[in-house]
Amino acid sequence: MGVAAGSDTRHVAAEPAVPSNGLAQLPPMGWNSWNHFAGRITAADVRGMADAMVATGMRDAGYTYVNIDDTWEGERDAAGHIRPNAKFGDMAALAAYVHARGLKLGLYSSPGAKTCAKFEGSFGHEDDDARTYAAWGVDFLKYDYCGATLLYPVTRENQEALFRRMGHALRNAGRPMVYSLSQSGEFDIWRWGPGTGANLWRTTPDISDTWASMSQRGFRQLELAAWSGPGHWNDPDMLEIGNGGMDTDEYRTQMSLWSMLPAPLLAGNDLRTMDAATRSILLNREVIAVDQDPAGRPARRLQKQGDVEVLARDMADGSVVVGFFNRGDASASVSFAWHRLGSGFAGTATVRDLWAHQSSPAGDAFHGDVPRHGVVLLRLSR
């Protein structure tokens, strides 16, 4: 299907660009199964996460999607239709359960014959799979390229064609579905991702629950800001908050940085067993409001003071959010004059600390300490 002759020069037939689906005007928020459960995820776990999103207040804070990553797939039936495996059973019933709680269901597939975990992929069945997802009530598709590396040389042209192929299939499936691409940011996907019909695309390899992994992926996005905005978001991967590999300051940094970029906020922990610190981070509505600002303008780097990165993000209401991010291994003292943000901020502005939840006159400058691997996140209003 769409393959030129030649064992070493096989290429996917080109596909026309896919129009925008108009979805994801704000960065998607929700939960994904992979970081905590990987291949252990079951339908019972998904129902538990949906219930927890309601009980903890996450749904009311804006977390919408309950996304099942790899390993849900079963065999195809005699007509070629994809079916869930025994861990999941009736996928339409699971979608109905999620929808009944005011949430949306996401699934995972690959343009390969097999997925990354060697389950059934969508190659050659794109249109049928998209229609099947729509019939089940699926609202979000994460499409991971790695399975296709077994079929074709890894080139931009092959990736773009296969992602466009599923983009057309989703567009014709009869149900709006947010389309998320995963291929580790190869070939500058942020430049051509919109033409696949996708709403977000991974710009990095998989994240892990460490400071080095998280900070490298997060700060890398500042170089890519020009390609991110309403309906088409750079995705530095999911949140690790609550999985235990970082401390509270580091998790606050991830939540703050992802919101400043702005990036999708997809929690990756077990929502049923969150401690108070994890809840306070994931449910900080003042920080969520930064991520979900309707203008969708990305943060910019103002300066670097030693190990401290100073970022600013212009908000729709005319305020500016400033983040002081300490990437060093010791506490750091910072000074920053507000006039650098423009007229109207020095002397007369109000400053709101989004983690301390306290407001005060801004004065002429910020002077303060930022903890190791921590953040001070301030919103200034004229």
Automatic annotation (TrEMBL):
SUPFAM superfamilies according to UniProt: (Trans)glycosidases (SSF51445), Glycosyl hydrolase domain (SSF51011)
Top-level enzyme category: hydrolase
Keywords recorded for this protein, A-Z: Disulfide bond, Glycosidase, Hydrolase, Signal
Gene3D superfamilies given in the database record: Aldolase class I, Golgi alpha-mannosidase II
PROSITE patterns documented for this protein: ALPHA_GALACTOSIDASE
Domain named Alpha galactosidase C-terminal: residues: 305-380
Catalytic activity reported: Hydrolysis of terminal, non-reducing alpha-D-galactose residues in alpha-D-galactosides, including galactose oligosaccharides, galactomannans and galactolipids
GO MF, any single term: alpha-galactosidase activity
EC code: 3.2.1.22
Stored PANTHER family: ALPHA-GALACTOSIDASE MEL1 (PTHR11452:SF75), ALPHA-GALACTOSIDASE/ALPHA-N-ACETYLGALACTOSAMINIDASE (PTHR11452)
Family membership noted in the UniProt record: Belongs to the glycosyl hydrolase 27 family.
Protein name: Alpha-galactosidase
Organism: Luteibacter yeojuensis
